[in-house]
Amino acid sequence: MARSAATQPRTRGKKPTATMLKVNGFPGENELRDLQFKLAYNLQSTLDVVNTLELFFSNIQDLFEVNGLSFDNLEGIELKLGSQEKHSACYNVATSTIQLGKIEFRRAKPFLETELTLMEMLIGVLFYPLRNALLYRAALDSSMRDPLTGIGNRQAMDNCFAREIKLSLRHQTPLSLMLIDVDFFKKLNDTYGHRAGDKMLKHIVTNIKNSLRETDQIFRFGGEEFVVLLHNTDAENARLTAERIRIHSAITPMEIDGENVASTISLGVTTLIDTDNVESFFERADCALYQAKKEGRNKVVVESSNNMRQHNRNSEAHAGQSSTA
Ligand SMILES: Nc1nc2c(ncn2[C@@H]2O[C@H](COP(=O)(O)OP(=O)(O)OP(=O)(O)O)[C@@H](O)[C@H]2O)c(=O)[nH]1
């Protein structure tokens, strides 16, 4: 493990405890084995990455003075614990074939050579529990992703919907929902083949993402249908966003067999109201999408709760007529 330690002296820092002082003289073989065993035992109690690193941090704080720990890796995990003091010791947590990330320890005064040696041994104990936790996290993450487009799948959407509705109602911030369906997608599949269809789905998702903010969430609902949750977005802004996405998709072709092909999309949009639950919120957007398809496709329809009541009345009246006819 590569390491580097900054060496500027500094006076601030935690007062050494009795245990720390004991370890400042390097532990004997038996003591070292006990420390490693105790740490390994403690780290076995969790498969969560954050918990694993928190446990590791608190365990090593019992041994010597460390005020801060940070960890980051290429998969985008970034964690900072404690305070970020001036002196650091940095390790690449890796074997010749497995790269887990970079771990850094910080404190106000320079690390001693004995402490750095001990730290390396303790990182050796951390390696497998951390690897297991990272693998578990990756497995959970991939079970929530649509493999074709890489966005959240239906399960991820179900997990997030109820929570977002609750938060929006509690904080009284607007939340809008878009249901997006690709137009005449069967024809595209039939004309250019399923693989070209797959490519088009990825292309459409990229277009949608490029028109959204970082905080908005997109999911694949199934087939050629997508769902977008727009945070802190009222009905008018949701309509503007939907129009932008619709136009972007219609004017951004993708090359298939040397031909430029663009797919249009239809969008149903609605905004959360106080009396909504997951079903009513979703049903309104679905109703709007149905309307957009009915009105010729390549269209945005915004459904307010008032319109919805009107639709319901109309369909009841229609049902009455049919039954008497
Ligand atoms: N290539 C590809 N096609 C898919 C995928 N999922 C669903 N489909 C196809 O999407 C098509 C959807 O067809 P329809 O439900 O009739 O809808 P549509 O042709 O888009 O017509 P409208 O929605 O009414 O405009 C079907 O042919 C499905 O096989 C996928 O992952 N990849």
From TrEMBL:
Spans annotated as Disordered: 304-325
Gene Ontology molecular-function annotations: diguanylate cyclase activity
EC number: 2.7.7.65
CDD domains: GGDEF
Catalysed transformations (reactions): 2 GTP = 3',3'-c-di-GMP + 2 diphosphate
A Pfam family reported for this protein in Swiss-Prot or TrEMBL: GGDEF
Domain GGDEF: 173-305
Record-linked InterPro entries: Diguanylate_Cyclase (IPR050469), GGDEF_dom (IPR000160), Nucleotide_cyclase (IPR029787), Rev_trsase/Diguanyl_cyclase (IPR043128)
Co-factor(s): Mg(2+)
BP GO terms, sorted: cell adhesion involved in single-species biofilm formation; negative regulation of bacterial-type flagellum-dependent cell motility
This protein's GO CC annotations: plasma membrane
PANTHER family membership: DIGUANYLATE CYCLASE DGCM-RELATED, REGULATORY COMPONENTS OF SENSORY TRANSDUCTION SYSTEM
NCBIfam families (alphabetical): GGDEF
Record-given protein name: diguanylate cyclase
Organism: Saccharophagus degradans (strain 2-40 / ATCC 43961 / DSM 17024)
Lineage: Bacteria, Pseudomonadati, Pseudomonadota, Gammaproteobacteria, Cellvibrionales
